[in-house]
Amino acid sequence: MPWSLDLSEPQTLLDGAMTYYAQALSFSCADQLFTSLNGELPWTQESIMIYGRETLSPRLQAWHGDEGISYRYSGKTFTTLPWTPSLVGLCHSINQAFGLKLNSVLANLYRDGQDSMGWHADDEMELGSDPIIVSVSLGAERDFAVRRIGEQRQAGKLALAHGSLLVMEAGMQNRWQHSLPKRQGIKQPRINLTFREIIHSRISLP
Ligand SMILES: O=C(O)CCC(=O)C(=O)O
Ligand SMILES: [Fe+2]
């Protein structure tokens, strides 16, 4: 199913490292997408290693994409699940609009303001040296925080609206880290989709 994107009012941020479209999807499309993804994706809470200890990840995830793609994330190897109709339609619309060849998506479900994602750059080797990543946000508005690589201090934040689209442009992952901090007051869930192009799919050894 194709989704129509309104890319008429881009906002350029971080000297061109990010472009934000506050209302790329209409509210009704965004509502519909949230409801179908929330119900249909096989949301899983992965365990991750933090300082050598196994802990549950503070969010739920699902990986979908073209067949035969595998990807390492937080020290684990994932193989993508097949596309769902709504995800493949959105990926196709994004590829058409931006002239990209994104072939997979990491879906994150933040159940409420207690769920989060720590500081990182999406710099895994599978993405090549300078990837473009397209992020779609649905549901509760949450802050997306940024800081320069090598600095502790947060440089800024951007509230990602329901139906918004954020392009992390070339240059972003090499210079900036991002995170999704906890927000005590938020009781509603949020879904984020980061569409990526996996260039070097890892060969799994037995
Ligand atoms: O939830 C977000 O907006 C960010 C997600 C993210 O950074 C990622 O999936 O790598
Ligand atoms: Fe990320």
UniProtKB/TrEMBL annotation:
Domain Fe2OG dioxygenase: from-to ranges: 101-199
Keywords from the UniProt entry: Dioxygenase, DNA damage, DNA repair, Iron, Magnesium, Metal-binding, Oxidoreductase
Gene3D superfamilies named in the record: Alpha-ketoglutarate-dependent dioxygenase AlkB-like
GO molecular function, a single term: dioxygenase activity
InterPro entries: AlkB-like (IPR027450), AlkB-like_sf (IPR037151), ALKBH3 (IPR032854), Oxoglu/Fe-dep_dioxygenase_dom (IPR005123)
Domain of life: Bacteria
PROSITE patterns with a match to the protein in the record: FE2OG_OXY
Cofactor: Fe(2+)
Protein name, per record: Alkylated DNA repair protein
Phylogenetic placement of the source organism: Bacteria, Pseudomonadati, Pseudomonadota, Gammaproteobacteria, Oceanospirillales
